[in-house]
Queue: 4 jobs
Job 1
Amino acid sequence: MAAKVSSKSARKLELVDAAHRVFRPPATVSHAALLDADGDSAFRETLYLMVTAFGRLQACRDAFGRAADLTGSQFAVLMGTAYTQGERGVTIRQLAAHVQLAATHVTTEVGRLCRLGLLVKRPNAQDGRSVLVSLTSRGEQRLVDISPFVRAINDLLFAGTDRTQFSELDRFLTRLVSNADLALDEIRRTENADKR
């Protein structure tokens, strides 16, 4: 006759067994190119590295904003305007696409930067529904003043990176952003289905 094991003893045996067993989590990706002999471990490590890198880039952008007495988003909009305004100005939609921020957010930040005297909005003669945004002379000076700091930080960030690597990174991130839009659509569909 088998000896009866108390529930307390059974639990202790379970804990001992669990301590000696190696749990292999299920793969979080199925693309063969992202798997190796260890499954998706290297993929996971790269994801964590990307999150760290993107967080540090965000921290740098926020520091650029502080150096200009602005927020990080306001800095991005001001700098984005400088690079896209040309001779006549840039639309909110074009500016939003350039700085990769929502058009509604860019509209809000443009309004704030106009109130600070760093940007100016003018009617768009080619499209009466939109405005053209340009730097004021004060906005130009603000960018000139902080450019040594921005340049020094970017030089540190991208030290040891060559043109080929940067081009590959650009292609990778362009694809990642496009794929992320599809992934976020799927997340929304899944979450909406779960609510029903």
Job 2
Amino acid sequence: MNTDTVLQLKFTEDNEAGSNGLASEIARRIRRSVTYMAEHLDQPLQVSALAAHANVSPSHYFALFKQQIGRPPIDFFIRLRMNHARDLLDTTSCSVKEIAASLGYHDQFYFSRVFKSVHQMAPTEYRRRNGKPNVAEPDNGRSIKPLLSFDGGMGLPENRAIPQSRLNPG
């Protein structure tokens, strides 16, 4: 994901140039957090870890983040994930299950509910409306492609990454 696009939310260089040093430092800290989020979409988000990295308390971090971005950190992170999922639906032939796993969701049905809460339609419906029907998924949302290998019977994919061959259809 191009973090420059993400960071255009409230951080323009023009706005920062006119800010005092403290406001500029806060914006830099939040920008680093957003960059971290965009680079770790497949991992759970720990607001306490982001706050520690920004060298502020979790409650202060939450307030600063919401002030700078306009949304709480968790809500923003979910939207980043779902926007990336939308991009994958548009540009790959990966199944919804594979996309969910690549974003750290072990339950494709939960992933679909979150996607629908953000984009007002299920991922399969989004793909159908946007002309990417070449994926073998029946209307019930279950993939007929082989499952990923699982470790220890715990239901956790060994490798959540999408194979390169699936990312570059052609």
Job 3
Amino acid sequence: MAHRKTSKRSKARTTLRLADLEQSKNAVLHSLGAASSQESYGHAIDEFIGWYCSEPRLAFNRTVVLRYRFFLEQKNLASSTINVRLAAVRRLAYEASDTGLLSPDLAAGIRRVKGAKRLGVRIGNWLTVDQSKTLLGEPPSGSLRGKRDCAILALLNWMWPATGRTGWTQNGRFPDPRGTLGDR
């Protein structure tokens, strides 16, 4: 009589428990390099886990992720916000599949969930590259518009010094909102 070998490897499941989701979440967050990405994905995954565990689900599959997308759309979130959150859920499915918690077929189905469509167009008067170079390259004149432009650029330079970029500067200095001239 032949003896059957039993595999010690567990079969991939379709329903994930909270512990499984947390394990996959930690794997996703450790695979990201930027702290801002970790924070954004962590928030998105936490929200998905809260939604997923709020009602009994049969499986973590494409249909459930489509329902989650519909849930996000009902909250009137921007399409870019929805797409970032769906990207985090797709990444969660990849990690669950890689660790054997989710079948590769289900992860592939989740991957095929389309993001929210971006509707609308940008409105307003947008500067061309040459116009923006002109604006940032020339010191404003003594006119009212020139003073306004100088104040706006000084405010931008004051608010975002960590970018390492400066807009308009005159002799390497620009007006400080506190009334003094500062070298930043």
Job 4
Amino acid sequence: MKQNSVPILSLKNIVTFVNQKTPSETMILKHLNLDVFDGDFITVLGSNGAGKSTLFNTIAGTLPPSSGQILHAGSDITGDSVEKRSRFLGRVFQDPKLGTAPRMTVAENLLLATKRGQRRTLALRQLKQNMPAFKQATVSMNNGLSERLNTATENLSGGQRQALSFLMATLRRLMSCFLMNIPLLWILIQVLN
């Protein structure tokens, strides 16, 4: 534990059930406590059904905890919406089809990601002005994504969609927390190189 530091994310005594009020109701997260500090890199390992996705869904706000408290930088976010949490939380899903808009192009998905956590109004989208930055960002993935900026996301390979999802989650670099529910070693290696 780091001294004199407020965790960027804290889970306090979190209990989360799935299939509530059904015969298959199950407690998945059982009084979980976790503090994540700036700079921490935490890996959650477990077999299928161990609760990894449930943990991420609880943190992201798509599955509210039955009890306990979630704090971001000391502020209680337990009741905050997914949209409100997206201001500081980036996420890459296990399923490459989630996290992107399939009928929008790669560039349009990236443009949408630049607006994450911001209030949106009716305005020209300014896609052309952003194309050089999108080209530069996608070249770093080294998987042909940079040549497919005008391709609908639904026409990408699974690996390209996950790479796009990763870029969308990290594009603004204002996120203090990232949830990655996939084996991303190859993407991280590409980015770090």
